[in-house]
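2024-03-11 09:14:02 DEBUG pipeline.ingest accepted 1 chain
2024-03-11 09:14:02 DEBUG pipeline.ingest length=68
2024-03-11 09:14:03 DEBUG pipeline.predict start
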Amino acid sequence: MFKLLIIVLFLAVVGVLFSGLFFLMKDRSGSKRVVNALAWRVGLAAALIALIMIGIATGQLEPHGVGG
């Protein structure tokens, strides 16, 4: 369940990234939608990092070294 939440949050970050790209390409210059998309992406990415750190701290996620 914890890993599924991380995957959903990651997909949300990617979705907001592409919506920001779409707004950047299609909106007129006075629109604030690109800035809002960037703010959402930063917030979701911070939540994703925090969730990964919580998962490692509680033992639900196990990090591995480089090369396995």
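2024-03-11 09:14:41 DEBUG pipeline.report The chain has one domain: 2-58.
2024-03-11 09:14:41 DEBUG pipeline.predict end
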